[in-house]
Design brief:
four-stranded antiparallel β-sheet; Alpha-Beta Plaits; three-stranded antiparallel β-sheet; Arc Repressor Mutant, subunit A; alpha+beta
Length: about 300
């Protein structure tokens, strides 16, 4: 386990130093996202590699074919997310050091999201920057970093956040190759409100869809009608649905939000399902791995939302 608490800012800075783009925080059935989620939840701090056949079987739980599963694993190896090993004719894979750290930082930030209301001093963090037209690839990367840090564009080249630490932005922008940058803290003084940078109605509607989509699951869980296979699939899909909100919801101060903002209700449901389904989901993960290597199966991990948030 990393000795330092995972930091989203550290992840963004490392990506800036590499010159790579962070993916948009979005839901979807991407096999690559699915496999890294499964390894992050149940195999994050385990140094041992898993047989390719076990990874194929894991993805089959989600309806992904063997051909697609092999292609997914190979793409993640090429991207440096997975590390590959050989033993005879069998291929083994595990999260690479960078893949593990990315997963740890990203997942911990998603699990912490919405846990507490943050105090607000009434000041916005404003980042203004300019990138030459011939360096559009740099502009694309910087926008990717800012979205991950909770910013949204009020105007082109002028991004705002209610909570971002200005001190973290300079190193990130310099690493990305942007020198024409101003970062300041400011109060609202007229003109377009910083709130215009976000569509709060759309954010609220996304929370309500999350609540509606998963409303029946707690009763099924409490009734004991959820199988280990269903638990693994449902828990993964609930996390995949929740992971979108840090990129949508700017975590604005309560006094700036409409009444009965649905974030707290959605987080309670997410936490109940993630934690409540954990034992059965981990059991199914172990069952799948045990078919291919019974010794490795006993290394399966599971964590609650609180354990992730304290990571």
């Amino acid at each position: 386990m990393s000795l330092e608490k995972p930091s989203l800012e550290a992840l963004v800075l490392r990506r800036a130093e590499e010159g790579s783009v962070l993916p948009r925080q979005q839901t979807g059935a991407s096999p690559q996202r699915l496999l890294t989620t499964l390894l992050g939840e149940y195999w994050l701090d385990t140094a041992a590699a898993l047989p390719m056949s076990a990874l194929i079987a894991l993805l089959a739980e989600f309806g992904i074919s063997e051909t697609s599963a092999r292609a997914t694993a190979n793409r993640l190896v090429k991207r440096g997310v997975l590390a590959a090993e050989k033993s005879g004719r069998q291929s083994y894979l595990r999260l690479s050091d960078d893949g593990r750290e990315d997963n740890r930082q990203r997942t911990a930030s998603i699990m912490r999201f919405g846990a507490d209301s943050q105090d607000w001093d009434g000041l916005w963090t404003v980042a203004a920057f300019s990138v030459p037209e011939q360096e559009r690839h740099v502009r694309h990367r910087v926008r990717s970093y800012l979205r991950w840090l909770g910013f949204a564009p009020l105007f082109d080249g002028l991004w705002v956040s209610a909570h971002a630490d200005p001190a973290t932005l300079g190193p990130i922008f310099r690493a990305a190759g942007v020198g024409n940058l101003t970062v300041l803290r400011a109060s609202e003084a007229g003109g377009n409100s910083p709130l215009k940078a976000w569509d709060l109605d759309d954010v609220a509607a996304s929370y309500e869809r999350f609540l509606a989509d998963h409303r029946e699951s707690p009763a099924q869980m409490d009734a004991g009608t959820v199988s280990p296979s269903d638990a693994l699939v449902t828990r993964t899909r609930v996390f995949d649905a929740w992971r979108v909100f840090p990129g949508l919801d700017p975590s604005l101060p309560d006094k700036l939000l409409p009444p009965d903002w649905p974030r707290a209700r959605a987080r309670r449901l997410f936490t109940a399902l993630h934690d409540g389904l954990a034992p059965l989901a981990a059991l199914r993960f172990r069952q799948i791995i045990a078919v291919h290597d019974s010794g490795l199966a006993e290394l399966t991990e599971q964590r609650t939302v609180a354990a992730w948030a304290a990571y």
